[in-house]
Amino acid sequence: GLFAAIMLPATGSASASQPSGDSAAKSSGGVTVIRSIPSSGNLNVSVPGGNSVKFSIESNITTGYAYTVKTGKNTAAARVSKVSYVAPNNGLMGAPGHSVVTVKPSNSGITKLTFTLTSPSGEVAERSTVTLEFMND
Length: 137
Fold this sequence. Notes:
The chain has 137 residues and is an all-beta fold. Helix content is 0%, strand content 49%. Mean pLDDT is 84; it is low at 1-23. The strands form two sheets. Strands 1, 2, 4, 6, 7 and 8 form a six-stranded mixed sheet that branches. Strands 3-10-9-5 form a four-stranded mixed sheet, with no helix packed on it. The protein contains no helices and ten strands. The radius of gyration is 15 Å and the shape is globular.
């Protein structure tokens, strides 16, 4: 379905054995990439010192659903981009693309983002908060 990329493990305890908490966050080349967010609730991600963050969340603009992002607490003085939609490069009709948001901190601290998925009629379909904790170098 539409939100296949946001499914959580069925057991619920599978992620408890990982101290980092979020297996969806991968770090490479100074960028921590987050590929899924909860459909509701909170996600906390520790970001290595000096890294920026890129959210790349599977979504499909052809459905009329769209993400918006708001910045709350921002002690890291991070620059948060607007949501941009990246179309799939496979050329298939109706194939999902990705909603992309970049977060570049000025210093260590916390940046809290609220993602809202809105239906074509303007109703809130999902809302979740992601807290990024930017560590010291």
